[in-house]
Design brief:
Layout lengths: L23 E12 L2 H9 L7 H14 L1 H4 L8 E10 L5 E12 L4 H19 L7 E11 L6 E2 L5 H4 L34 H11 L3 H8 L3 H9 L7 H10 L4 H5 L6
Antiparallel strand pairs: 1-3, 1-4, 2-3, 4-5
Helix pairs in contact: 2-4, 7-9
Length: 265
């Protein structure tokens, strides 16, 4: 049985001595998913929630959470974080906000806890922002997605089973049963086939293939973030022709290739 590194010879909790370890580049990504009511979701996407911009506030909170991890988790080492990022993407089911966090450092221990704390704090901030209109919001699936660097090498979370990928049916009342986590847009599995109605899933596939983050892509293309979020979440049925042209230009491709979900050659 593997010995827990946070226990000393007497079985007592202690901070691991990493002074003999080599400093290497370490990265980690984590996720959290927040399931809210359709009304709350609409207000988050539209930016009309009374407390203000939920996504921007949660992003800053998550970054701060990564930086404060050693103050929150007793046995974590204080790390010089070289990068902390949060991406929050409304999902097509019209109820789920997907939080993806990234943490990087060059040091003697990993940043898994920083990435997990960032995702959790961002999710808690979303709950705080929406609780006035949806106290039944659920934070689910806080988990490590990937890590690299250090003696233990790389890790990638297992893919979801087909049963877990199925989205729960949307209804006016939330089921009392536990919400089943669903496959994420950034995971390596291919997204569902696009419907005849629009190229939303093709666009999501294109974003995954190119490593495009909605906030950064929208900013570089001078497209309102809410317009892109609204389309990705299914809140709006189509992007304006102007937005399509700008997004394609920023991604250095054609609108036809972008909406067809083409991978880079």
């Amino acid at each position: 049985m593997t010995k827990l590194s946070h226990l000393d010879e007497r079985g007592q909790a202690s901070m691991v001595d990493v002074s003999s370890k080599a400093a290497t580049e370490r990265t980690a990504t984590a996720e959290a998913r927040v399931v809210i009511s359709e009304d709350a979701f609409k207000q988050v996407v539209d930016g009309t929630l009374p407390k203000g911009d939920v996504i921007a506030t949660a992003r800053i909170a998550g970054i701060l959470g990564a930086k404060k991890t050693s103050e929150l988790i007793p046995l974590c080492h204080p790390l010089a974080i070289t990068h902390a990022g949060i991406e929050i993407v409304p999902q097509p089911d019209g109820r789920t906000l997907q939080v993806t966090s990234t943490a990087k450092t060059t040091g003697q221990t990993g940043v898994e806890m920083e990435a997990l704390t960032a995702a959790a704090i961002a999710a808690l901030t979303i709950y705080d922002m929406v609780k006035a209109i949806d106290k039944s919001a659920v934070i689910e699936s806080v988990r490590l997605l990937t890590k690299s660097g250090g003696k233990s090498g790389s890790y990638q979370a297992p893919q979801r089973s087909p049963e877990e990928r199925e989205s729960p049916k949307s209804s006016g009342k939330r089921s009392a049963a536990r919400v089943i986590p669903r496959v994420l847009s950034h995971e390596t599995t291919a997204p569902p086939a696009a419907t005849a109605a629009d190229g939303r899933e093709n666009l999501r596939q294109f974003m995954v293939a190119r490593g495009l983050r909605p906030s950064e892509w929208a900013q570089s293309a001078s497209v309102p973030l809410n317009e892109l979020y609204g389309y990705l979440s299914g809140h709006s049925r189509k992007l304006s022709s102007e937005a399509i042209e700008k997004l394609a230009k920023a991604a250095r491709t054609t609108p036809e290739q972008m909406l067809a979900g083409k991978r880079p050659r």
